[in-house]
Amino acid sequence: MSGLNVLIADLEPIPAKDLELNLKKLGHQVSAMVHSGEDFSDLLKSKNPDLIFFDPRIELEQPLSDLLIELFPSKRPAVIALCSPPIDSAKLLWIKENSPESYLCKPGKQSELEAAIAVSEALVSKLSDLELKSQLYLDLSTMMNGGDSFFIKHKSQHRKVAHSDIIFVEALKDYVVINTAEKRYTIHSTMKDLERKLPKSKFIRVHRSFIVNREHIAYVDYSEVGIQNSDKVVPIGGSYREDLQARLQFL
After folding, report:
1. CB 209 within 8 A of CB 169
2. In what order do the strands lie in the sheet with 203-207?
3. Cα separation, 10 vs 230, whole angstroms
């Protein structure tokens, strides 16, 4: 484990500089150090980091996890959350929503820094292999079934799931949950990849964490979509509202 290209995004310049020195001692290269969300977004793509140390207090226009998927669809950099004590509810919520590979409490010891990097690299390597296998399998199953169904691994079997049976899809960290009337199937994929494989004529992305089958929509409110024959409601994200309204027929 050496020679990683690292980007540091920390609101506090002094701890960030200390982190840079410790990373250099471990043989890693810090290609950029930023202290604002605007600078981070501007440099992220061009620096193409292997590893990002990110302060959850830095504000971005979109969630960090979504930004990384958008900019690095094939191989995303690992993320280590930089946390200053105390770990309050806002930081815990950020960690839950963005699923960093590891975290480091400032000021971190050298051994803690090494451990955080090792954990993050191991997780990214494992997830990349799983994502590749899931993508290949979804592509193959789509072609084999004329594009109107998937074969999804469920326990020891591969179950055929027709697009028409899918009620809605929900993101859950590094997985997506496909909800049908009979079962819930959890697969390792991104919402972006699954959205690409589902027919646009039948499915609408209404939120960064939800895709719904338009045939199963009972009603549309300003902030939510109701699902037919259930009490389930799905939130509507602000950036998806215009597309939803354009694709549904309102009288």
Report:
1. no
2. 184-187, 175-180, 166-172, 210-213, 203-207
3. 45
Which is it for strands 78-83 and 102-105: parallel, antiparallel or unpaired?
parallel
- Tens digit of pLDDT for each residue in 145-190? 456 777 776 655 677 788 899 999 999 877 888 999 888 888 777 8
Please give the backbone phi and psi of residue 38, each rounded to the nearest 5 degrees, phi first. -65, -45
Sole residue written with tokens 């694709």: 247
Pairing of strands 175-180, 166-172: antiparallel
Instruction: Tell me the CATH number at 47.
Output: 3.40.50.2300
141 within some domain? no
In this structure, the answer to whether residues 126 and 217 fall within a common structural domain is no
**Is residue 71 one of the residues assigned to a domain?**
yes
Tokens of 205: 């992305």
Measured distance CA(80)–CA(103) in Å, rounded: 5
Same structural domain for residues 126 and 154? no
DSSP E strands: which ranges in 50-148? 51-54, 78-83, 102-105
Q: By residue range, what is the domain housing residue 200?
A: 148-247
CATH of the domain at 178: 2.40.50.1020
Instruction: Answer yes or no: do 105 and 48 share one domain.
Output: yes
Query: For 204-245, how does the pLDDT look when each residue is reduced to its tens digit (9 = 90+)?
Result: 999 999 999 999 999 999 899 999 988 899 999 988 988 888
242 is a domain residue: yes
**Type of residue at 68:** L
